[in-house]
Automatic annotation (TrEMBL):
Residues 7-165 form the MobA-like NTP transferase domain. InterPro entries: MobA-like_NTP_Trfase, Molybde_CF_guanTrfase, Nucleotide-diphossugar_trans. Its cofactor is Mg(2+). This is Probable molybdenum cofactor guanylyltransferase. GO terms for cellular component: cytoplasm. The N-terminal domain determines nucleotide recognition and specific binding, while the C-terminal domain determines the specific binding to the target protein. It catalyses: Mo-molybdopterin + GTP + H(+) = Mo-molybdopterin guanine dinucleotide + diphosphate. Its main location: cytoplasm. Its EC number is 2.7.7.77. It is found in: Cytoplasm.
């Protein structure tokens, strides 16, 4: 375990495709958000759950996890994952942050730990270490250097909301993915059906 690594779990999405809050869906009896926090804890000393809805998830917190309350505007609609991440990153002190979506039920702790062990070999000029797939980077299961925050804020302040658009401006270290099933993204009732 590295004291230079913390984790941010994003739990502020609308789950509109699922039709119910994905974070609360039990996977083999464990609510998805709790499952992701448990996995994050196996790699990082502190896990930060970024959400505007602390009360909803209070009962799911694991021993090493805490909330970062996301600030929303207007009718409390979230700003999307890039802004949620920036708000979380601004509160974190470690050199590296493992960023995780809360809808990845097939994550594998061993792979996350092997990636974390590789961070010491990542080139100094890389701002992140991510898996690359045919459509671009996988931004919501990978590692970011804390010092990417000024560039992220600049991109957001200019109106940018896309991880791909932001990452395009930077050098990113490529992580290898032993089995793509690990990144199975549970967005719809059909996805959920595949799990059960
Ligand atoms: N904190 C925070 N997390 C977000 C926000 N938008 C999405 N997320 C999280 O980002 C991850 C990926 O979200 P998606 O699957 O793309 O979208 P979603 O909003 O959860 O669901 P849809 O409404 O179906 O698109 C999930 O962990 C979401 O909870 C946001 O505005 N704030
Ligand atoms: Mg998703």
């Amino acid at each position: 375990m590295s004291s230079d690594l913390s984790a941010i779990v994003l739990a502020g999405g609308m789950s509109s495709r699922m039709g119910q809050d994905k974070a609360l869906i039990p996977i083999q009896g464990v609510p998805l958000l709790q499952l992701i926090c448990q996995m994050a804890e196996s790699c990082a000393d502190t896990v930060y759950v970024v959400t505007p809805w602390e009360e909803r998830y209070q009962h799911l917190l694991t021993p090493k996890s805490k909330f970062i309350r996301e600030v929303t505007v207007g009718e409390s609609l979230p700003h999307g994952p890039l802004v949620g991440f920036a708000q979380g990153l601004a509160q974190v002190q470690t050199e590296w942050v493992l960023l995780l979506a809360c809808d990845l039920p097939k994550l594998e702790v061993k792979v996350l730990q092997a990636w974390a062990a590789e961070l010491k070999y990542v080139e100094e000029d890389a701002i992140a270490a991510l898996v690359c797939h045919s459509k671009g980077w996988e931004p919501l299961c990978g590692f970011y250097r804390h010092r990417c925050l000024p560039s992220l804020m600049e991109y957001i302040n200019e109106g940018g909301r896309s991880f791909q658009g932001w990452l395009k401006q930077h050098h990113v270290f490529v992580l290898s993915l032993p089995d793509s099933e690990m990144l199975f993204n549970c967005n719809t009732p059909q996805d959920l059906g595949l799990l059960q």
